[in-house]
Design a protein that fits this description.
This protein is an alpha+beta fold. It is 13% helix and 25% strand. The chain folds into two domains: 35 residues; 329 residues, Jelly Rolls, CATH 2.60.120.200. It is built from six helices and 21 strands. The strands form four sheets. Strands 1, 4, 5, 12, 17, 18, 19 and 21 form an eight-stranded antiparallel β-sheet that branches. Strands 2, 10, 11, 13, 14, 15, 16 and 20 form an eight-stranded antiparallel β-sheet that branches. This is Concanavalin A-like lectin/glucanase domain-containing protein.
Length: 455
């Protein structure tokens, strides 16, 4: 097939892919001129397949027109005539908000109205300017107080004294001569306040490893001069710091009208341990409150209301705290520093025999009897006079300090527990040096009106 030469296109011919020449009568934007100028400067023979994106949409001979809506072009009839239903769009939320505030105010008022406001008579308000032996009694015992505690409590100024507006209860080491050689420590007729001979007699036997109490300490009570049936108690104190110390602020029944412990009850306002805050069971940064009650010592309902409270960014040995109790016919609760910061709360909503969830029989198969059945009251045994007890215990064999934890130097069931504790004194006694005692600034006991002559 013969080749054919295509003649060049003259000026009057139309190139279907060439950019149309602008009309000389039509103004051209500067940007369009610059684009055309840049194209004209391309090297000869260059035929770029792409063009600038800005070239698209430009209509030759037309100015660019904005598509934005201009003010006044859109009609807004709703400005001239409002829909009457629009009022409720704002009104309903506002009305709901007002009703909500009214309901909240009503609930707050009702809550405040229900808060009990009792009248009280002051029974004791002791700032410890001096020791008052008409109110306070120093207990003297060596029997361990039912917990196998290691301290011997004394009535001397070595362990309990008042100075500069403070009551001090401080444990000290026992006389080594009473431990290192065979000894019988008999306090009967020498001020012992215990009822059984085991509360008043201790011995050291170098053969079998038995020793007298390795520590002396203090335990005092208000049984003689200040007891209440319902009311309030506040003790402002700094608790001790030191390994194996056991400080306690608590109450016992004055007459034990329902029988031996725990039939007549016990109120623990605050108990702690002197070990530091790393102690797994809780050291001097933890207090616990509880009620003890039950048909016998092996069936104690303390576990249903035992509550712990941790000090906030401090310990109970670093500064003074107020340990409080409020006790009425309907409830009993303990608190820390303020009544708003409750620790343990027990409402007398059911009889304590049911509340304690006691078994039908003891471990020997003997049927357990309800010691409060005859009263028909939900408050029993906490419906009698109680007095205050302050003490610093040391050690013990009842599990308050768990075996094998934190280097505990004795075993609770060990035959030589006291001796093992004594022989480790080079470990624990140095921890008592800085704050190994309880400091009490104030004790306040208030009787609720309507009882014990308070009107």
């Amino acid at each position: 097939m013969a080749s054919q030469t295509i003649p060049p296109t003259d000026g009057g011919a139309s190139d279907p892919i060439a950019t149309p020449a602008p009309d000389p009568a039509t103004p051209v934007e500067s940007s369009q001129v610059s684009r055309n100028t840049s194209k004209s400067k391309e090297a000869p023979g260059t035929n770029s397949p792409f063009t600038s994106s800005s070239d698209y949409g430009v209509v030759p001979g037309k100015y660019f027109r904005s598509r934005r809506i201009k003010k006044g072009e859109v009609e807004r009839p709703y400005l001239r005539r409002k829909d009457p239903r629009e009022f409720w769009v704002d009104a309903i939320p506002i009305i709901g908000f007002i009703i909500g505030l009214a309901i909240c105010g009503l609930l707050i008022w009702d809550g405040v109205r229900r808060v009990a406001h009792h009248k009280y008579c002051e029974v004791l308000n002791d700032n410890f300017t001096s020791w008052d032996d008409k109110v306070w009694t120093k207990e003297v015992e060596v029997g361990g107080f039912g917990n196998g505690q290691f301290e011997m409590t004394t009535n001397t100024n070595e362990n309990v004294w008042v100075k500069d507006g403070l009551l001090i209860i401080k444990p000290t080491l026992q006389d080594e001569q009473l431990i290192e050689r065979n000894t019988t420590l008999d306090l009967r007729g020498k001020g012992c306040t215990g009822r059984d001979w085991t509360d008043c007699v201790a011995t050291t036997n170098t053969t079998n490893g038995t020793i007298v109490n390795p520590v002396r300490s203090g335990r005092i009570n208000t049984k003689l001069g200040a007891s209440i049936k319902f009311g309030r108690v506040e003790v402002t104190a700094k608790l001790p710091a030191g390994d194996w110390l056991w400080p306690a602020i608590w109450m016992l029944p004055t007459h034990s009208k329902y029988g031996e412990w725990p039939k007549s009850g016990e109120i623990d306002i605050a108990e702690s341990r002197g070990n530091n805050r790393t102690y797994a069971q809780g050291g001097n940064d933890i207090i616990s409150s509880t009620l003890h009650f039950g048909p016998d010592s092996e069936n104690d309902g303390w576990w249903v209301n035992n509550v712990k409270r941790q000090a906030l960014h401090t310990t109970f040995s670093d500064k003074y705290h107020t340990f409080g109790l409020e006790w009425t016919e309907k409830y009993i609760f303990t608190y820390l520093n303020t009544r708003l910061l409750q620790v343990a709360y027990t409402h007398f909503a059911e009889p304590f025999w049911e509340y304690g969830q006691f078994p039908l029989a003891d471990r020997n198969g003997s049927r357990l009897e309800n010691p409060w059945a005859h009263t028909g009251s939900n408050t029993s045994p906490f419906d009698q006079d109680f007095y205050l007890v302050l003490n610093v215990g040391v050690g013990g064999t009842n599990g308050w300090f768990k075996d094998g934890k934190a280097g505990k130097p004795w075993i609770d069931r060990g035959r030589t527990a006291k001796k093992d504790f004594w022989q480790a004194r080079h470990q624990w006694h140095p921890t008592w040096e800085k704050q190994g005692w309880m400091e009490v600034k104030n004790v306040k006991i208030l009787q609720q009106a309507g009882y014990n002559g308070c009107k």
